[in-house]
Amino acid sequence: MVIAIVGSGPAGFYCADFLTRALPDAQVHVFERLPQPYGLLRYGVAPDHAGTRGLSRLFDRIARRANLRCFANVGVGADIAFEDLRVAYDAVILATGAACGAKAISSDPDLPSSSSITAFDLLRCFNGHPDADARQLPGRTQAACIIGHGNVALDVARLLAHPSETLARCGVPRAVVEWHAGLGLQEIHLCGRGHAGNTRFSAAGLEELENVDGLRRLVDPADVSMAEGSNLPALEVLRRWAGHGGGADSGPGMAIRWHFECAPLRHRDRVLVVRDPSRGMREIAADVLIHAVGQRPAVMPGVPVDPQTGAVAHRNGRVDGMPGTYVVGWAAGGRNESIAGSRAAAGALAEVVIADLRQRSVLLDGRAAERLILSCGLGSPDREPPAENG
Ligand SMILES: Cc1cc2nc3c(=O)[nH]c(=O)nc-3n(C[C@H](O)[C@H](O)[C@H](O)COP(=O)(O)OP(=O)(O)OC[C@H]3O[C@@H](n4cnc5c(N)ncnc54)[C@H](O)[C@@H]3O)c2cc1C
Question: What confidence tens digit (pLDDT) does each residue in 373-384 have?
Fold first, then answer.
């Protein structure tokens, strides 16, 4: 039996892990459009999070299994046809992740396009993604406003607040370190719709900001003192900082200021206008908006789309109207999923795939897949995982 996985991010690679272990006689082939594998583990996770990025060593070990072959630099739909995969493999699993970051509000057409960037694109630049374009990076910026109250927003805030030398030590590309050093940033606003008790920050993610030298963390006591909600650990940290988060309200050095219950309306004249239910319309200084409000799933042409989620239309991972085709991870609409969430989703999908394969009376012997690989000029699979794990 032969199984194709499209995409080598955490969802695809954990699927490969489960399937190669559960089905030792099966051949699993992973196709990745980029020259380097592991998706957002390599190109999304913050460069200063060495622990999380170290997961790539586990993936390197999985990649060496005898019943797994990885083909890097092979885009399905570009270098190899999706329909051909469906014919040559018993099962095809789409794990294509996200296509781009989402924006909370559209950009003002009168502003330069670099004044509004997604965290997704910014982190691509920090991580040296082959498609990253340093021209997307904003010019000199005194105040930046990050929209979103989750851990990706904290990653962006922390990376911007770090001294440039720290970024250089974490392997951030030189051009981006130089951009960071010349940015002139003084204040970062973290703006979200929910109140202080209902953010998606982790307490650990907030506390990491305490390790950034000289960073003032500015939380208005009025926002947190009476707040309740579902995320009490994060609220506790915000309460601890309220009024005295590492320095005075104004002063030298970089500051991060939290804003709650703010619905962004428009960005104009270096100001973000927000609607605040208790304080009415407000203006927040923002030369640049950075959107950390999720992402849009990557759906290949010819694959059905769920109009509600924009992700691949599926039931329990089985793609609608395409027997033998499955979807997992962000391509399946796992909107807020973390790497651990991708692992859980991959395990659940592997069970579905295995159950379906066990019901089939005829399974392929792999010769059609072999012919397809050769006909596409992919004879020598990328068996050696990359040497560096950054
Ligand atoms: C900026 C950012 C930071 C994050 N930080 C963390 C963190 O610190 N901790 C955490 O737990 N989670 C983090 N996440 C979330 C985590 O990255 C995702 O949960 C996870 O990567 C989703 O895995 P995936 O495999 O679905 O998608 P991806 O990681 O996007 O992988 C999809 C892969 O498919 C490939 N692909 C796409 N189309 C094709 C095609 N046609 N042919 C072949 N290959 C294709 C892509 O090149 C990519 O390699 C972060 C996310 C972002 C955006």
Answer: 999 988 754 444
Of 291, 307, 324, the one marking the end of a domain is: 291
Same domain, 284 and 144: yes
> From ligand 1's centre to the CA of 370, what distance in Å?
28
By most ligand atoms within 8 Å of CB, the mutation choice from 58, 96, 299 for ligand 1 is 96
Cα distance between residue 26 and residue 2, in whole Å: 6
Evaluate whether residue 381 is within a structural domain: no
CA distance 97 to 332: 8
Q: How many A from CA of 339 to the centre of ligand 1?
A: 8
The reply to whether 43 and 149 lie within a common domain is no
Distances (CA, A) of 113 to 106, 123, 182: 11, 17, 19
| Partner residues linked to 268 by β-bridges | 271
Do 17 and 68 touch, CB atoms closer than 8 A? no
pLDDT digits (tens, 9 = 90+) for 174-232: 999 999 999 999 999 999 999 999 999 999 999 999 999 889 999 999 999 888 889 99
Q: Which domain holds residue 176?
A: 103-291
Q: Which residues have CB under 6 Å of ligand 1? A: 6-12, 31-34, 39-41, 44-45, 49, 52, 75-77, 95-98, 119-120, 123, 152, 155, 295, 298, 300, 329-330, 337-340, 342
* Predicted model pTM: 0.93
Query: Are residues 219 and 264 both part of a single domain?
Result: yes
